[in-house]
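To: structure desk
From: M.T.
Subject: fold request, one chain
Message: Could you run this one when you get a chance? Sequence is below, nothing fancy, just the single chain.
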Amino acid sequence: MTQITEQLARLQWRVNSAARSADRDPDSIRILAVSKKQPIAALREAWTAGLRHFGENYLQEALDKIPALDRDAVWHFIGPIQSNKTRPIAAHFDWVHTVTSRRIAGRLSAQRPAERDDLQVCIQLRPEAATERNGVAEDDVPALATEIAEAPKLRLRGLMIVPLPGGGPVNARREFARTRRVFEKLRRAGFAVDTLSMGMSGDLEAAIMEGSTCIRIGTDLFGTRDHG
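Reply: Done. Structure tokens follow.
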């Protein structure tokens, strides 16, 4: 048994336990392996252990990895999006969790290759107390959701949130609950959303309690990243 297999077993136990506490089906919660700064060998171990969804923050690093893994891997872009990077993101990824503007959504739509399935998109919600952090203000979410839902080659799936660092578990759960409320407003407005991308290694239990369907896990799966 590899280290990643052992880590995944521990992680799955945490997910199952949190899901039971929330009276939820553990199978409704996807583990997204955040593989930034990890070598290809680690991704292959994760694949062998049963993971199929991989999240990358850095475009060039991801472009080097994508051809090296099985073609059935599902690639999620989870980093900030610069306008000059939308074309390769649209061409090579299956999901984007971090759409924050009509401009970015429009470029992804226009640049998605015709032969590829629709790009699965989440809107990144800005933390409530933040004014300069990446993300969309709560009041601006419906208009952006409409733009994405009507755009060719995009499919709106839901919302993503990254709580402010250092806020502790209470603040994280407050942000997760707020994100769920915004998500539910979208559903009541008729948007066919089904994804709440929220929760990481340190706060996945709180995220699951508030309805997360996709937890983004790096360190607790792969171990400490190489920052060199």
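Reply (cont.): The chain has one domain: 3-222. Let me know if you need anything else for the meeting.
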